[in-house]
Amino acid sequence: MGLSNAQYDRIMKIYDQRRSEHSLEQQRRKEECYQKIPALRALQQEVVQSALSRVRASLRKAGEAPVPAPHRSPAQAEKLRRRLLLENGYPADYLDPIYSCQKCKDTGYIGELGKKRCSCFQEAVIRLFYQQSGLSEVLQLENFDSFDLSWYREDLIDPRTGRSSRDLCEDVLNSARQYCRLFDQGGNRNMLLFGPTGVGKTFLTHCIAKELMDTRHSVIYTSSQDLFDQLAREQFRYDPDEDLSFSREFLPESDLLIIDDLGTELTNAFTSTSLFTLLNSRIQAGKGTLISTNLRIMELRDAYTDRIASRFIGSFTLVRLFGEDIRCQKSTRFARQG
Ligand SMILES: [Zn+2]
Prior knowledge:
Layout: H1 5-36, H2 38-59, H3 74-87, E1 109-110, E2 116-117, H4 119-133, H5 138-141, H6 165-181, E3 190-194, H7 201-214, E4 219-223, H8 224-236, H9 245-253, E5 256-262, H10 269-284, E6 288-293, H11 297-303, H12 306-315, E7 317-320, H13 326-337
Parallel strand pairs: 3-6, 3-7, 4-5, 5-6
Antiparallel strand pairs: 1-2
Helix pairs in contact: 1-2, 1-4, 2-3, 6-7, 10-12, 11-12
The structure holds zinc ion.
C-alpha cells in the first residue's frame, strides 16, 4: 500500500478532528447532566477535591499534619456516578470518553509501543483512496460482481480470431481478475485495454479499480483529457498558488494510475513528451498503469511517437475487447421494452 506523506497527513488530520469532536461532545454531555442532576455536579466536585487530597497526602513531609482521607474511593465514586445517571434516565456510560474506535481510542495505532496501525487506519486509507480516485459512487454499480457477459453475443464472430464476442470477453474478464490477483505478486502491473467505442472498456477499468482499492491500493482515475490538462497546469504554472499535489505526488506515487480513453485529447509535442515521461517513471518505480483506448497500437504510434508505441508493446499486457456497442444495445432494448 503506497501512502504518500500528504495522504498520511490527511488521515492523521481526520483522527485529530474526530478526537476534538468527541471531546466537545463529551463536554456538552457533562454540562447537560450537571445541570439536570445537581448530585452529579456535587459528586464531580468531590472527586476533584479527593484527587487533590491524595496528591497532597503523597507530598506530605514527615512532621506535617495528616491530610484527611477522602470518604469515597475513586471506584466508589464511579459506581455512584453510574447509578445517578441510570436513575435519571441516562445510559450508565453517558459521560465516559467517546471513541469511534475503542481499539485504538482514535489514535489510529495500537500495540504495546503504539506502532501498529489499527484496522480503522486501514479503513481510513481505503476511504481516502476512494475520495481521491473520484470514483466512489460509480464503483458501487460497476464492478466485477455486476459485470454482465450477456451483453457480448455468442453469434458475433471476430474475423481476426474466429472466436465469438462472448468467448473473447470471458478471456478478457479472466485477464482482468488475474491482473488484480497478481498485482502484488510479480504480475505485470501495466495493461492496455483497447477496442472500439462502447464495448465495456471503461466498465472493466472500474472493476479493476474497485478490486484494487478494496485490497488497500491507492488508485488514481483520470480521463486522458484531464490528465494532460493537469500536467500542462503543472508545466506552465498558469496559477502560481494552485495546489499541485495531484500531479506532483499522486500521479507518480499512486499504486495504480488509470487513464481512460487515451487518444481523445488533443495530441501535440507536449502530450507525447509528458505521456512518455509519466509512463517511464511509473514503470521504473514499479507502479501500475492501466490505459483504455479506442486506438490500436499503430494508431497510438501515429498519435504519439514510436517510443511510446514500443513502451506499450514492451511493458504492457495488451488486451482487446471485441463486441457490439453496449450503449446502443441498451437503448434499443429499453426502447423495445418501453
Ligand atoms: Zn482504531
